[in-house]
Design goal:
Blueprint (H helix, E strand, L loop, with lengths): L7 E8 L4 H14 L6 E5 L2 E8 L2 E8 L4 E7 L2 H8 L4 E4 L14 H11 L17 E4 L8 E8 L4 E8 L2 E8 L3 E3 L2
Antiparallel strand pairs: 1-5, 1-6, 2-5, 3-4, 7-8, 7-11, 8-9, 9-10
């Protein structure tokens, strides 16, 4: 059984973009086969279902909030760190300084915001955005709610923006719907 002196925390692992769900499958399989169920509890790809309007038809699609990242809830022991770090497709932990150092866990409010968005109801994306590339925006809903960032790209066809957000001390581009951002006035 897990040593009670350690706490269950959420960490961010970095993967190759587009391989997040494969990494999740690989890690979940390794947790079982390597007997780590007392140390590694949940693996979550931060994605959500959204409703988009394409050619006049509403369609529900899955959108990955943070391409290249997967969340893992675990007790950070040497063995658990090794299992996660050496899972095929995992390139490292976000918040680790390399050389085998243990990463920094997410703050509870960051986790709550992300899980609320992942478990939330589908959203309808608005058709327009009152902002331009280079504008600062507040993220008003979703896993990054409460963060501020700068718009780097606007896709009017998909009704999405790419926002550069300071996440865990790193500038990270995040794609989100027009409904998720509000211009900073």
């Amino acid at each position: 059984m897990a040593d009670e002196s350690f706490d269950k925390q959420w960490y961010v692992i970095h993967t190759y973009a587009g391989y997040e769900n494969k990494v999740k499958q690989n890690l979940e399989s390794r947790i079982e086969t390597m007997g780590m169920t007392d140390y590694i509890f949940r693996v979550v790809v931060p994605e959500q279902e959204i409703t988009v309007n394409e050619n006049g038809e509403e369609k529900t699609v899955k959108e990955n909030d943070f391409p290249g990242y997967v969340l893992v809830q675990m007790i950070m022991t040497d063995e658990a760190w090794y299992v996660v770090r050496n899972t095929p497709g995992v390139t490292g932990f976000l918040g680790s300084h390399g050389g085998g150092s243990k990463p920094t866990s997410l703050l509870p409010d960051e986790v709550d915001k992300m899980l609320a968005r992942i478990n939330g109801a589908p959203q309808i994306a608005p058709q327009t955005l009152d902002a331009e590339v280079g504008d600062a925006v507040n993220i008003i809903s979703g896993s990054m709610a409460g963060f501020e960032g700068t718009i780097t790209k606007i896709d009017n066809e998909k009704h999405q923006v790419t926002v550069l957000v300071n996440f865990m001390g790193r500038e990270t581009p995040a794609e989100m719907d027009f409904a998720d951002v509000k211009s900073v006035i």
